[in-house]
Amino acid sequence: MLRLVSTIALLAFSAASWAGPKVSVETTLGNFTIDLNQEKAPISVANFLTYVEDGSYVGSQFHRVIPGFMAQGGGFDKDMNRLPTNAPIKNEGYNGLRNEPATLAMARTNNPDSATRQFFINYSDNGFLNAEQSPPGYAVFGKVIEGFDVVEKMAMIPTKRIGRMSDIPVDPIVITKVTLLK
């Protein structure tokens, strides 16, 4: 009985920890919904929502898709032109959230505090991106809670190389609408 109560409590805690703002993302490949963790990643969530609310994710594409690893988007338009950014944010890699399947994390350069508008969705358990294994890590701030099959379909599209960039889907996967759900 105690084990059952503990399991139920753990499940309730897990569900509650992801009970933040939700965002619907429509793409040329289909739609998915993200649950954001404002409690553990307040800076990353606020940053992401800035781009959602100003509409600048619309017209951007998933420009780097690596099967079994991740799908990255938000930083380039369908013609691979870099999109304008706000100031970089502080890395929240030590927030306790893990780079597990279906989670969203902030993309960044080698500078830990360089994340702006690009994010990625993990296809698998990418523990090597967590702060404990790769300090200071890549900050997880959300999770795909509906439509992960759409994200998985992205990995089935052939990719190409343009200049120094690789893993670009041959057929652009463009974000057509992003909505903060009430």
UniProtKB/TrEMBL annotation:
Is the Isomerase keyword given for this protein?
Answer: yes
| Signal sequence segment | 1-19
EC number(s) of the enzyme? 5.2.1.8
Give GO MF terms, alphabetically.
peptidyl-prolyl cis-trans isomerase activity
Record field: catalytic activity: [protein]-peptidylproline (omega=180) = [protein]-peptidylproline (omega=0)
InterPro entries xref list: Cyclophilin-like_dom_sf, Cyclophilin-type_PPIase_CS, Cyclophilin-type_PPIase_dom, E_coli_cyclophilin_A-like
Domain called PPIase cyclophilin-type: residue spans: 26-180
Could you say which enzyme class this protein belongs to? isomerase
What keywords are annotated for this sequence in UniProt? Answer: Isomerase, Rotamase, Signal
Keyword Signal belongs to the record: yes
Q: Which family does it belong to?
A: Belongs to the cyclophilin-type PPIase family.
PANTHER family this protein is in?
PEPTIDYL-PROLYL CIS-TRANS ISOMERASE CYP38, CHLOROPLASTIC
Function as written in the Swiss-Prot or TrEMBL entry: PPIases accelerate the folding of proteins. It catalyzes the cis-trans isomerization of proline imidic peptide bonds in oligopeptides.
Q: How is this protein named in the record?
A: Peptidyl-prolyl cis-trans isomerase
Naturally occurring in which organism (per UniProt)? Vibrio gallaecicus
UniProt lineage: Bacteria, Pseudomonadati, Pseudomonadota, Gammaproteobacteria, Vibrionales
